[in-house]
Known about the structure:
Blueprint: H1 7-11, H2 14-26, H3 29-36, H4 40-54, E1 59-62, E2 65-68, H5 70-97, E3 102-108, H6 110-123, E4 130-136, E5 153-159, E6 171-185, H7 198-201, E7 205-208, H8 214-226, E8 231-235, H9 239-247, E9 253-256, H10 257-264, E10 268-271, E11 279-286, H11 288-291, H12 294-308
Parallel strand pairs: 3-4, 3-5, 7-8
Antiparallel strand pairs: 1-2, 5-11, 6-9, 6-10, 6-11
Amino acid sequence: MDPSGWELWDRVDVAHLAVLRELAEHGSVTAAARATSLSPSAVSQQLKVLQRRLGVVLVERVGRGVRLTDAGRALAGIAASVSTALAAAEADWQSYRGGVGGTVRLATFHSAGELLVPGLLDRLADQPGIVLETFDEDVSQDDFPALTAEYDVVVAHRSDDVVPPARGDLEVRPLLREPLDVALPLDHPLAGRERVTPAEVIDEDWIVAPAEFPIDRVLTALAAQAHSPVRVVRRTTHLPLMEKLVARGHGVALLPRHTTRDRSEGRLALVPLADLRAGRVIEALMRPDRAARRSVQVVVHALVEEAAAYT
Length: 311
């Protein structure tokens, strides 16, 4: 049978396409079931119905799991386009009706949440129809795109020196660039300087984020410019802990300027780096179908406005 042209729409159900799309995104029946609020057996049954109606094999067994066939991957791509078109149509209808509502799931890494979420909630106060659910997801910078399968909006970051891979399957909305400054104890000889060079701070004891996080990658660039290795004494993703350790003289750190500034006064010094572009780029990542939803558009617009307050 030839599942092409208009004959395809005579044979498929949009709900079945959604199940196939989630299977492609999540990679397992169990995860696809969570994403669609179905049981794993219901997901398997819908896939069987879809295969039977089209007369083609869409999934095949691999060990204890399944994977999409070439036909399955092709139809999953079509399913993504259908989902985006339906979401755009729903957004147009909501605009016509003059209202917007729905639940939006927002994932942020810790410091971005601290920086952006309070003001975002203030900006959404006049949108009672939108329910914003927030989640903490602090992962390495290469792992943020995968989170868009679980959340409507994912706030991600990457270091200045990283060119992101092609992300044609995602909507990317730039939010802001946040400079990274050297955090020093107040009694440090360099604490009163307007700027410090990589060579002046490379021999310090460093408190840093785990490898593959933006702050660590910038520190790697600092070491390359200073032609000397970094002496790491502690690693953590928890910026308030970094701040306390620096304030008590247990080392120095690279810390994001806007996030740290309010807490630094009287506790530690934030000194910009000279001769090195040190910063992280913060972005909102979304699947196209979710980006097309009116409620998501309102949340992202408010995110962009809140980020602009820092730039």
